[in-house]
Batch of 2 targets.
Target 1
Amino acid sequence: MANGYRIGVDIGGTFTDLVLLEEGTGRLVNEKVLTTPHDPEQAVLSGVASILAKAGVAARDALPVIHGTTLVANALIERKGVKVALVTTAGFRDVLEIGKEWRYDIYDLSIRVPEPLVPRALRFEVGERMLADGTVRAALDEAGMRKVAAAIAASGVGAVAICFLHAYANDAHERRAEAILREVAPGLRITRASALVPELGEYERASTAVANAYVQPVFDAYVQRLEEGLQKGGLTRGLYLMLSDGGTVTAEAARAFPIRLVQSGPAGGAQAAALFGALASERRVMAFDMGGTTAKACLIEDGEPDRAVEFEVARVFRFKRGSGLPLKVPVADMIEIGAGGGSIARIDRLGLVQVGPDSSGSDPGPACYGLGGTLPTVSDADLMLGYLDAGSFLGGDMVLKRELAEQALAEHLGKPLGMSAAEAAWAIHETVNEAMAQAASIHALEKAKRVSDYALVALGGAGPVHACHVARKMGVKRVIAPLGAGVASALGMLAAPTAFAIGRAQVAALSALDLKATAAMLGALEQEGRDLVAGAGVPAAAVAVRRTCLMRYAGQGHEVEAAVPDAFIAAGDRAALAESFASAYRALYGRTESAEPETVSWRVVVSGPRPRIDLAAAPRPAGGSRRVKGERPCWVAGQGFVPAAVIDRYALGPGDVVEGPALVEEREATLVLPPGARARCDAALSLIIDL
Amino acid sequence: MADGIGTLAVGLLWQRMTGLMDEVAHTFVRTSFSSVVRENWDLAVGLMDARGRQFAQSTRSVPSFNATMPKTLGHMLARLPAASLKPGDVLITNDSWFGTGHLNDITMMAPLFRDGRLFAFVGSVAHTVDVGGAPRPEAADSYEEGLTIPPMHIRRAGADNQELFDLLYANLREPDETIGDLRAQFAAYRIAEERLNRILAEEGITDLAPLVDEICDRSERAMRAALSAVPDGTYRDTLDIDGFDAPLKLCCAVTIKDGTITVDYAGTSAQIDRPVNSPMSFTAAYTAYAVKCLFDPNGPNNDGVFRPFRVTAPDGTLVNPRRPAPVWGRHLTGHYLPPAVLGALAPVLPDRVIADCGSPLWNVYFRGLDRRGKRFVKMYFMNGGHGARADGDGPGCLSFPSNVAAQSVEQFEHQVPMLVEEKSFIADSGGNGRYRGGHGQRMSFRSLSATPLTATYRHERVLFPPRGLLGGAPGAPGREYLNGERLPSKTRVTLKAEDLIVFETPGGGGFGNPAERSAEALAGDRASGLVGTTKAAE
């Protein structure tokens, strides 16, 4: 595969980032084009053409394009999917709207709950019933199903979801209902809930299935336009997409269950952090991605981002857990809080400083943009504190107005609290850092991990400004600041292996498990995965298989993911699986229970090799010749303004060392290096900062 | 702490304490054994300083528990003085008058030590399905309702109080589940102690008191400011309660004066020999909750918030019963308190109040033998419709004033030999109005058990439906049926195989004149098929 080229593409809110990698040499070429929100594929296609030209590569030499997209999440957040119908077991069509019945905010009398994606008039019921063990209580009412199918055909919907009770245990009725729908209402896209989520929990399963149906036609059309465009441009090696858990799949596979791409874009950032962590020889890293409106954190161990089995999208209230639509989708497990450069600061009723979760967005934006914003934001604070430079923001393309920031800070926080504008700025900076540090720490602790065992990888436009201060709050000793943090997600797309995760529910006591049938089922899942990976061009010898089982003690309702040991597969060793579960449980909770273990669902992940990316071999970007560009005062905790050297990031080479306090500037980001911190440039041009 | 950096430090520390409580709650829930904790989150976790003042609690918690915890701690310390406590101790009680108002909520408190000195308490309250006894709707005194654990040690210096465990095993129907939950909380307390000690070490804090003073003082000032914005005066409301043998009356007078608020329940019916009496702890908790919702919904919940607040009720009434009144279903009275406070203040705060919700909370206990022949007790919650508000319809089936989540039907059917045949909105159950009340739900349970099962429940809002507000119509009353025949609203029934028991929860009240409902909202009503489709609509 000498001199193959791969292209990673990440569509952001403002820019579409592209990275081209020359395999073998490790040469990287970056490109940035304006996102085209109405036809996102236009930016991808023009970006691909332009990056090929820039790199001097012919289209026919390019390997697949690997793409992460926020299209699915945006369609759900902005409610821009298609009209969907839902078919449920008779008596249960309102489950989708009733939801979990609890209030995410106990003191809000005017609480808002998210509107269901399918209005009641389009929720249909059909007679049928499975019992919990998968036996048939009532046969499918075929005549009734035909009537429902006819009504759906006449309703003008673009897609249908089917969700029957206990279909994860026996999907015969769901399959038959699908067949009748295809016959009576041909041409509709159909999502069978038990095929998408073979797990217990009727509300979450229906919610996921409906969300899939809702975005599917939109996603289909987009992928088709993109594929056609790439073909036309001579890129014949196809298109790959990044799933929410960081695996990549063929466009064809992605189209079956597009809801699995709901976190596709952010997963690229996690993969990038995994890559930079590996290059810096760090086993455990935390991706810390801070942008304009939110900050995200994701734990990564041995190159694998932590995974979760559910996710909540389109929260209607202040990013609050419980206020969104639940999705049972494998995702890179991230927390997201409403804290970004544009987050607005104010004084709350207790006279304390509160930052976010609302954001000034890009219009009017922070006060310092001079576009009419008058409320102080995190970016205003960072400018006031000297962390950002008025003249070199976005390489000088946008001149920030310090006097407007100062005015906003003084008027809304400083005067009422009896502080100077700079002290108010520091209060904002500290408050938002505390919020992020706390959210990230709790996220780690929920997984029985200590955030202080991790190195932090600073990503996003605001990430490098805040990373060192946030790290110190969490007791983190090392920060990795990669070059080009702004295009890191696109690079992350290239760093991810081809991978498929396939699951199957099976609630059973471990002692009563049918070992033969289980082994056969796991074998079938593995074969299915191997076929998919082979179809993506991965040689059989390079395939890795990981089997896990979601387990719990009888009587519990939350599961723990246990690795399925080889001894269980090969010899049916129940004790080995019990021990694997016990050790996973102990790692999370520090103890085990005396109750009997149960299996809940099985998961097989079949993956190709992780692509090798050797940034050390990459030619250095053309940069400045003078290391120190100048000096400016920047705020230091407990000292106030202190002069700090301003370093040109592009003038730093491997082995170079920068001591804090210093500000290291590149086009899209500024790294704030506090006193006592020492940054060393490694072979991949990442700055490795010891705090 | 009056300077700017002090302001900053207070804000940051309070953020961290709340985060810590969330962490403790999550740890508990994920290791618990009962679905009432795991799926319904019928619990709360709180942090108190050495003097017993509460200053942080878990974000997602049952509102009344937040208010009872510090009071329960006070009762514990009255018997077991703080000076006698040792590291690794855990105190417990479920006394109805000291705790949350009924035996089924167990409160535990662990003293936290730093350098050998007690500096805080972490506590939690969690519902347990069974506490022994013969709880039934006819219970005439609290002794029938189960085992009372007076304040005592459940752990001493890190070791189990084995005698208490033996007593629990001998008296509970589901000891593994209940005790599994208790142990899950012990583990959660350890995390709280370790983390809190780390935070204090990092911040160089040796004494929590100045921080608690500062947070509580700020909260008190904010609360007084909010109360001062309401014209001084006494505002009243009276509510009819279904009761057992005869309807009961709840009288509520809210007096706002100089930035303080007093809620008095004089005139309320006398206590009755049925398990619906609400001990003062529960009465105070739900009254405080309504006050917090109205005047300080976004601030922290702590001792300071409630300094300008008083609640009074004559001795021997439904809302302040004497021992040994039966109190098992005290929510059947207590859940009426928020609507009474909101109703009283509706004329002066029309933009903030909501119409009555379809509560007191509806639930049912099923008992019998499971598929393996093992005895089970299973509680299932069903929420009614939410009341409409000044700016919108009430959501359907949403918990209020409690905050109890619904359990998955599939999960339920895995645990119990029953079939749920329906869980859906009831047409025309939401009260009409400019803004419509949320709909109630119909839940149908069929027994698939070869041996008889029992269903025990006590429901309200069957006689007197949730009221509308400021011109809005009432929601539909609740109903119960066995094989199509109406059942009493508070009873225990036996279900034979294939018997069908159906519950219809009440709908929320409407808000404002129905004639002012917008054309768009009316079109939505029609499209939903939930409005104007039944006889009730005519």
Target 2
Amino acid sequence: MTRITLRSMVVPVFACLVAFAPVSAKAIDIERVISDDGVESWLVEDHSLPIISVRFLFPGGAATDPEDRAGLANMVSGLLDEGAGALDSQTFQRRLSDESISISFSASRDNFGGSLKALTRNRDEAFDLLRLALTEPRFDTDAVERIRSQILSGIAARTNDPDTIAQRVFWEATFPGHPYARQLRGTAESVAAITEDDLRTFVTRRLARNELIVGVVGDITANELKVLLDKTFGVLPERSEAFTIPKAEPAAAGEVIVVQKNNPQSRVLFGQKGLYRDDPEYYAALVLNHILGGGTFTSRLYEEIREKRGLAYSVFSYLLPMDSAALWLGGAGTENSAVSVSIELVRNQWANIRAFGVTQDELDKAKANLIGSFGLRFDNSSAIAGMLVAVQRRDLGIEYINERNALIEQVTLEDVNGVAKRILDPDALTVVVVGDPENIKATRTIRDDG
Amino acid sequence: MKTGSAVWRGMRIWVVSLAVVPVLALPGQAQVFNPATYELDNGMQVVVVENHRAPVVTHMVWYRAGAADEPAGKSGIAHYLEHLMFKGTKTRAPGEFSQIVANLGGRENAFTSQDYTGYFQTISPENLETMMELEADRMTGLVLTDEIIEPERKVILEERRSRTENSPRALLSEQVGAATFLNHPYRLPVIGWSHEIETISRADLEAFYSTWYAPNNAVLVVSGDVDADAVYQLARKYYGPLAARELPDRIRPAEPPQRAPRQVVMKDARVEQPSWSRRYLAPSYTAGATEHAYALEVLSEIIGGGTTARIYNSIVVESSLAASAGAWYSPGSLDMTTFGFWFSPRPGVEIADVETAIDREIDKLLADGVTKDELDRAQRRLIDGAIFARDSVSGPARVFGASLASGQTVEDVEAWPTRIQAVTIEQINAAARIVFRENTSTTGILLPADKGDKS
């Protein structure tokens, strides 16, 4: 049985003085496994339960969709387990459910990924079904039409959902003409236009060995895994087709876009340029964001907007570094009459931190929370496998999980206040409001009465 | 009374199932989480699930009090109080609890349902003691003032707008809930009706708190990298000194017999994709004809559990009438529950046509019953699910908390796979005949507004 112990998990905290325990304790034991045919996976062996969790990922997701086929990667993700090899859709699904095997795929803007979870007794069958799904998907017409109808009804169901509208309008305004402006699931028109040829082309171009990333956690040894890696991923084509997504700077700085909807509450989405994941000041920004709007019940935005004034149930901010752009985003849901006040409070906090920085006390508390809570992400085997994949995708190194807390610990007040001055800009915030807000100075109004 | 009878029923089923399926009595297979259980002198139940995979512990306190325990005309108290539990006590300033949890790198939250209210923190094990100290403090020491409750009332009204009023689906669901139960408080939304949230007074909140928040009405569940006996000692230290209180019986107004099917049709200009659901009143583990609960759980898997189940296969795959469809059954409620079906029609397909196809499936089930093959597959899947449930630190704590706060026992949870395995074809067919009667159904339909309407 593997015990995952994280260095610096132990963070004693006193009323206001924060002391950090010395870096100690044994590390999480990640093994780099390379199969005979050269397929690489990171592995955390854990034989405490008869379960194996696998996550894998191919760079290149929805951003690679052709413009008139937006939603292609997402549609492929819904179809790989709908029949493969000699097994039609219902036979394939029946195998999965009879053996309690979960296989699923998903597309984000930058990645196409998947997961497998199975009991040890069904391990070989599970990997075999995964191999079929990745290398011999059938795309039978009835299955394609069924999944298309599911995607289309999902799009229809979200047409008037305030969050969906806010996201769509925000990304369209921020990245005009760029692939990031498109919706992950596409539009009714683009999804209707996707052909079986498009689906097959995506699989041929994207799912290849050269950029494959795999993370495995659970009841399997390195030698057992090597065999399954070869059988499952070794048969993929050698190389994917190269693609480029141009880097994008967020546009629409300072805009306030109102989408007029007859809802009792407005959804507010705000954001500006953020930092790339490899930015040297990324960790300082992470700490800063925690103080600004990242801490669930403790951030400045939470305190000002929810706790003191009761203007919103939920208010938050987060960093979103992607391959080709970086954002600093936030959101809130607030009564129509309180929208303009809430936006003003957000801008004030943005300006206040930029001008005056944060306090040593805020810094200490934020670091303590970020360090102490890191280990909570290791709740289950799928979450750990996901972390193994994310660390490889970001090229952070196999020691990252054990070093991450030290990187947070090193952040100083000067670092945080420096990155605040460099990045935070209240005048650069793009704000999207979906609802019927009162007394708001919009730079653009979109009527969308449904 | 209620708890007593559940224990007795549990014992009986346990014995029967061992006799019928000796295969599952193998060591290590009959149990799910292998918890240690204790009871403090003041009546507080303690359940500990050791899991040493990662240096993390989940600490939860569940109260056997939820929205269905509120006095009439004051819906939303239980949830409102849940929010206020994050304010101050006699010894802690407002927000101090959360600040301490945050400083220690913990995560915390709380939730309210019809039958229970729960509070939890996930944190590194050396801070468990602090969590117990704080949680015990707010079990009896909460301080409420108008300055504290008024901003929070606004927050809750925002939460309601956010979750419910901004969503036609949620609004319909609330109407369907109110139509499903005529008399039982499950007819009321957990968050409360807006007009009642607006009038809940400080005295109402304090009365609910002093009635239900007591150690003998609470369940402590600790799951993670801990030693069970050490947890028990800490529990004695912090929760032990709290005095037990006299508790009212949790007897809610019962439903009269339902004599006609009910239907709620909601049209809303915000709807682009119609949807349909129907629920039948059904027994739970602890209410109504409880002997059918496990059979209904297996039946729900056969008829509506995923993409190989009967409903999906027939309505989504074979006849292509619906984009998606399924069934659900949640046997964990303290009082009567529902067995439900749902679908989203494919574009251009009339709701009535899909509904007819669902009725045909139900009629077929009532006429021909389920097959041995279907039973075997469903049982295997469900029992495998109990293994996957162990792959989590916080998951087992949630299972025990919800079960113990809703009238079940630790033995019930641990015997779950055995009881699922003991279900027979005859039991399923009998359960289906008990539940699927048109007169005990409520149907909800969500449609786009007629042309020209404005919502």
